[in-house]
Design brief:
alpha+beta; seven-stranded mixed beta sheet; five-stranded mixed beta barrel
């Protein structure tokens, strides 16, 4: 009997009385991992109307105990729509299958082979510990990436990994998407579209563009959108209809439009939303400051990236009479303007979050709010919600308080400027730091060169005092077992025309860590507040990792000569991360570690955050760009009215209950994944664009690289600064004839005995860029 059946049997028992999830877990004798599965099953049963919550958080069958208790009406459950035009049902019914058939989602590799993630009997992804079913190119039938397919397993054939199975697609049950973005080509009398995704297994045949209704008529080399026709036989060509022309392939605007199309990103807001935004005031009115603590005269400032478009958070600093220090974490009060159920609210919920592509942003809120009324820009009054953290002389947290505030930021600082204020004593050197380019940011703030010595010294003292406390918080967090998973980031900056112009490695230095620690502290404090007061709210949850995934990763580490203890023990993970800091392929292995951990997501249950080693955690600090934080702000307001003496007229209640919060958590987890995939796609495209432009430079730029894998025909590299991956072919090793050693770790020159070995370092220059296959070839620098 599976967990769902056991749960339903318990709920249907004659002597059952409504119990909470924790009580049910004890009654069913579940371990910690099974308890997480119980939460998932309960959520699905509530969504389908089988069970309901009564008496707060207790579970009961809907057919039991009379009619459901009346609740405030909630809007329809939000369902995230994938990027394609023909959206499939969220949970399609399982088709009639042959006894030896299974159902799953298929994904392809660049070479044409594929893998299928099998579903369980309820249509959900199956056991994540089980390897995906591997499918050879000739066994994929007419499947395309993302399709829901029926498969048959070849029980007599084994895969490369333990437990891995081989199979074939027997039929396509549902297309993953109905449109494809690609490059239009002419081949003799035929017109073809090559999909942007190099894993798309076939070209699409289309009619002569002159016969389409598109104006201007698409030409070879244009980026286009194709609506797919039914494809029933692999012996036939896949055909489609040209439905949009986006521009010339590889031009910045066309590439951007392609991402919008692929990931269903709306660049414009509905008219009703724009009307609501236009009706809002241009600035904070005196009446808006009622029932708020006035912090406009208290030292307050923001620290953000050079290219920040909106400013969610600010820090204030106060010294108290008894030598204690009070730090205010002030967060933009979006809930003051976006009322529950309004057009602004519905559209923000649908989007779920802002999407940050290279050089641009698709905001969750219209610009009047995201870059204007809500953004904590320098020198303007802004409404905020605040968590106040009071520390004693030794830097120990003594008291936490919560309030609605009004602030006026004294300075918009970049991380680079804050780092200089922390570490540089020469004021003239600090003043010499440039402002970020106007086309890259929502607000530049005043130039440091315009500040007086007194203003700069004040900023120095405040930031250094904040860092002393933040450093203590960080050390305590790490000692408690928090995993230092911060990764260096390659930031791509574009010029005024939108072309990739510059790469910069962003390191998580003290200026970043200062902001990070206070944001973490505020998020933790608010999560503890909502949990202890039993207020239905969203939590940011990161479950414990799957032991089998960690064991696979442990075996991978062995191939790199890294030996660890039991990675299911937190202290072993902490030691490993320190080891990776000094390893030549530390970035790659850290990335693999992240993939071995579970994804974080949103949930109504405060189930803790494994990576941060925190029992209580939520997202509170970015409501301009995350709807989850706006939800938490509304719950925060409920606390202020019920427990802190704020008048009920000061808030706009959303009437959240656990069922609605669960549905929101599922929806927002999906929109977050979609945005992350769009952002990764944007980075890939812009990296290729940057290195393609490198081909025109004279002389070409030298890049430091590390050899990550050695093959007979060349070796793979990772660039040290940008963490970009590429390949050096033996064809480009022109000084000798190179052969692979018996261990497979070195290429050795026959004549000069020059060696290129695993983990070795060298300087390279760009040799070739294939933007269609998304490959970059390098050669050793002369």
């Amino acid at each position: 009997m599976n967990l769902r059946d056991r749960l339903l049997a318990e709920l249907r028992a004659p002597d059952y009385s409504p119990q909470s999830e924790s009580e049910l877990a004890r009654a069913l004798g579940l371990n910690k991992k099974q308890r997480a599965m119980l939460v998932h099953e309960t959520r699905r049963l509530m969504a389908s109307g089988v069970v309901r919550r009564v008496k707060g958080d207790r579970i009961q069958l809907r057919s039991a105990g009379g009619p459901p208790a009346k609740e405030k009406a909630a809007p329809p459950r939000p369902i995230f729509a994938p990027a394609h035009r023909h959206v499939a049902p969220e949970q399609p019914a399982t088709p009639r299958l042959d006894p030896d058939e299974h159902v799953g989602r298929i994904q392809f590799r660049a070479g044409g082979s594929a893998f299928v993630v099998l579903e369980d009997s309820e249509g959900d992804p199956g056991d994540p510990r089980q390897p995906a079913l591997q499918v050879f190119p000739e066994e994929t039938l007419t499947a395309l990436p993302g399709d829901r397919v029926a498969v048959r397993i070849f029980h007599g054939r084994r895969g490369r990994k333990p437990g891995e199975k081989i199979g074939q697609v027997t039929r396509v049950l549902e297309r993953g998407r109905g449109t494809i973005v690609g490059n239009l080509q002419r081949a003799g009398r035929h017109w073809l579209v090559q999909a942007d995704d190099p894993r798309f297994p076939v070209e699409i045949q289309v009619e002569d563009p002159a016969r389409s209704d598109l104006k201007p008529v698409p030409q070879p080399g244009d980026k286009v959108v194709v609506t797919l026709d039914p494809w029933r036989s692999r012996h036939d060509s896949l055909t489609g209809r040209l439905s949009a022309r986006l521009g010339r392939t590889h031009e910045p605007r066309a590439e951007l439009l392609g991402i919008y199309e692929k990931y269903n990103l709306a660049t414009e807001f509905p008219a009703e939303v724009e009307r609501e935004a236009a009706a809002l005031p241009d600035r904070v009115n005196p009446s808006d400051r009622a029932n708020r603590l006035d912090y406009r005269e208290v030292p307050t400032f923001t620290i953000d990236p050079d290219d920040a478009k909106d400013f969610d958070d600010a820090l204030s600093y106060e010294t108290l009479d008894d030598g204690e220090v009070r730090i205010g974490v002030h967060i933009a009060d979006v809930s003051a303007y976006v009322r529950p159920g309004s057009a602004l609210d519905r559209e923000a919920q649908r989007r779920g979050n802002s999407t940050y592509l290279v050089g641009t942003v698709i905001p969750m809120l219209p610009e009047k709010l995201s870059n204007g009324l809500c953004s904590l820009v320098e020198g303007q009054d802004r409404l905020t919600k605040a968590v106040f953290l009071t520390f004693n002389k030794q830097g120990v947290l003594r008291h936490t308080a919560y309030a609605n505030t009004v602030i006026r930021s004294r300075k918009r600082l970049t991380y680079r400027q804050a780092f200089a204020l922390l570490n540089e004593h020469d004021l003239d050197k600090i003043r010499a730091l440039p402002l970020p380019p106007k086309h890259q940011t929502g607000s530049t703030g005043r130039a440091l060169s315009s500040l007086s010595d007194g203003e700069l010294v004040d900023l120095q003292s405040w930031i250094r005092a904040l860092w002393r406390i933040a450093l203590r918080l960080r050390r305590a967090r790490m000692e408690h077992g928090s995993l230092d998973l911060d990764m260096p980031e390659t930031k791509i900056f574009v010029d005024a025309e939108g072309y990739a112009d510059r790469l910069e490695k962003i390191v998580n230095d003290e200026s970043h860590q200062l902001i990070e620690e206070f944001m973490l502290a505020a998020n933790e404090a608010v999560a503890r507040l909502t949990r202890t007061h039993r207020l239905p709210s969203l939590y940011r949850v990161h479950d414990e990792p799957d032991p089998e995934k960690l064991e696979e990763y442990h075996q991978l580490l062995g191939t790199f000569g890294i030996h660890t203890g039991d990675l299911t023990r937190r202290e072993e993970l902490v030691k490993l991360i320190k080891t990776l800091d000094a390893h030549p392929q530390g970035y790659t292995l850290r990335t693999q570690l992240l993939r071995s951990l579970r994804k974080a997501g949103y949930r109504a249950a405060p189930d803790g955050h494994f990576g941060l080693a925190k029992k209580d955690y939520t997202h509170f600090t970015s409501p301009i760009r995350r709807y989850s934080d706006l939800v938490v702000h509304r719950v925060f307001d409920t606390y202020l009215v019920k427990h802190a003496g704020y008048p009920a007229t000061a808030i706009h209640s959303a009437g959240y209950n656990l069922t609605r919060i669960e549905a929101l958590g599922e929806h927002l987890s999906l929109t977050e994944i979609n945005s992350a995939e769009a952002e990764r796609e944007s980075v890939k495209i812009k990296l290729l664009e940057f290195f393609e432009r490198e081909l025109d430079r004279k002389p070409r730029t030298r890049f430091a690289a590390v050899i990550t894998d050695v093959r007979r025909h060349g070796f793979f590299i990772e660039l040290v600064e940008s963490m970009t991956f590429g390949f050096v072919s033996t064809d480009n090793l022109r000084d000798d004839h190179y052969t692979l050693n018996s261990a497979g770790t070195q290429l050795i020159g026959r004549k000069h005995k020059r060696r290129f070995e695993l983990n070795g370092r060298l300087d390279v220059v760009v040799e070739k860029v294939d933007r269609f296959k998304r490959l970059i070839d390098f050669r050793p620098a002369d």
